[in-house]
Design a protein that fits this description.
Helix 6 links the parallel strand 8 and strand 9. The chain has about 325 residues and is α/β, with parallel strands linked by helices. The strands form three sheets. It has a seven-stranded mixed beta sheet, with helices on both faces. The protein has a six-stranded antiparallel beta sheet with strand order 4-3-6-1-2-5, with helices on one face. The chain has three domains: about 30 residues; about 90 residues, Beta Barrel (Elongation Factor Tu (Ef-tu), domain 3), CATH 2.40.30.10; about 130 residues, Nucleotide-binding domain of ferredoxin-NADP reductase (FNR) module (Rossmann fold). It is built from nine helices and 15 strands. The structure holds flavin-adenine dinucleotide and FE2/S2 (inorganic) cluster (FES). FE2/S2 (inorganic) cluster binds next to loops.
């Protein structure tokens, strides 16, 4: 190559380099002008370790129902061998904004995501409670977390209990096992306005005494809230002096005014059929019975079809349904 050619090539390289520098400086200025948050590449690699990396709030619109929000565990209480009660707060201090009977999708990166009912009342401003049974991947991972650990929450989703419609009525709650979890949100909401409701009864069935959830609250409700609580365990147990037999065995002796009683039922799928039959004997109409259905869920907001029963999506139109609305769906109960 002649020396002239080499000189020209070097000059062209220099000019290109100057042009690139100008362009970069222009792009930098433009980004700083337009952006109130950090540029994307800074979020992952260049923020000093001491600064929190607030991925959720910097780049995404956190008001979207599709997006999980970062939350922190404030407290963990062991309720039974398998169930723990988690008190949770969002990092941005916002409220969950749920109504009783709704659920959220909880995820821990690397372990998956699952629907969990909200167990606290909407009255709690900055925290909410989830009672979780350890059964698999995600729920066991959650049980290994402790105060201060972080997880992701999206929601609340679904339709809950018709709190306003229940006012002025006698209420009969029938819970089986972990079904007391979503019901607790409604019971506590109702008890916070106790004079607005008539007589309140709770029938609660569990397999054995050590599976009874919220023991202290059950006796508090019985003693102070003029609410009648009956607990039964499936089979006789050495130190158990209370009722034995499945939850439906508590129904026949009950005096119910069928003209003003609304029944709320939450429990394992097998329970519903028998409870509904017993309520039929008490002449309670299908439009006065509400149940919460549990189905496999993935998206939680009507997109994936995993929770479909015939023509309905449980995650969207439920999980709480009026019996008269689903009674004739073949796969519902
Ligand atoms: C609307 C709704 C509300 C729920 N609320 C609560 C709650 O408040 N507290 C709580 O502890 N659980 C609740 N669940 C159940 C909870 O979502 C499952 O236990 C959870 O998905 C299990 O996830 P995992 O990764 O730990 O278990 P996996 O590893 O996915 O599975 C463990 C075992 O459980 C079975 N399983 C998983 N999910 C379900 C399901 N939905 N139905 C039947 N079997 C299943 C699997 O087949 C497997 O045998 C709720 C479910 C729904 C649909
Ligand atoms: S869970 Fe996806 S549609 Fe209901």
């Amino acid at each position: 190559m002649s020396s002239l050619k080499r000189q020209i090539k070097t000059e062209v390289k220099k000019m290109r380099s100057i042009e690139m520098q100008k362009l970069r400086s222009y792009e930098d200025k433009k980004m700083r002008r337009n952006s109130t948050s950090q540029p994307l590449n800074l979020l992952t690699s260049e923020i000093p370790a001491s600064q929190p990396r607030n991925l959720s709030t910097s780049i995404f619109d956190i008001s979207s129902p599709y997006i999980s929000r970062l939350a922190k565990i404030e407290r963990v209480a062991r309720l039974t061998e398998k169930e723990r009660l988690f008190t949770i707060a969002f990092e941005d201090k916002k409220t969950l904004g749920h109504s009783p009977g709704q659920f959220i999708m909880l995820s821990i990166p690397g372990y998956g995501e699952a629907p969990i009912s909200v167990s606290s009342t909407p009255n709690k401003r900055n925290t909410f409670e989830l009672c979780v049974r350890a059964v698999g991947n995600l729920t066991n991972a959650l049980h290994n977390l402790t105060k201060g650990d972080r997880l992701w929450i999206r929601g609340p989703y679904g339709k809950g209990f018709p709190v306003e419609e229940l006012k002025g009525k006698d209420l009969l709650f029938i819970a089986g096992g972990i079904g007391l979890v979503p019901m607790r949100s409604l019971i506590k909401t109702v008890l916070s306005e106790r004079p607005s409701y008539g007589k309140i009864k709770l029938l609660y069935g569990v397999k054995s005494p050590d599976e009874i959830l919220f023991k202290d609250e059950l006796s508090e409700w019985q003693q102070t809230a003029s609410m009648n609580v009956s607990i039964t365990i499936d089979k006789p147990y050495p130190e158990w002096k209370g009722n034995t037999g499945v939850v439906t065995t508590l129904l026949p002796p009950l005096k119910i005014d069928e003209t003003k009683t609304v029944v709320i039922v939450v429990g394992p799928p097998v329970m519903y059929k028998y409870v509904i039959m017993s309520l039929g004997d008490k002449r309670i109409a299908g439009h006065d019975i509400y149940l919460s259905l549990e189905r496999r869920m993935k998206c939680g907001l009507g997109k994936c079809g995993h929770c479909q029963i015939n023509s309905i999506y449980v995650c969207q139109e439920g999980p709480v349904f009026r019996l008269s609305d689903i009674r004739y769906l073949r796969e519902a109960i």
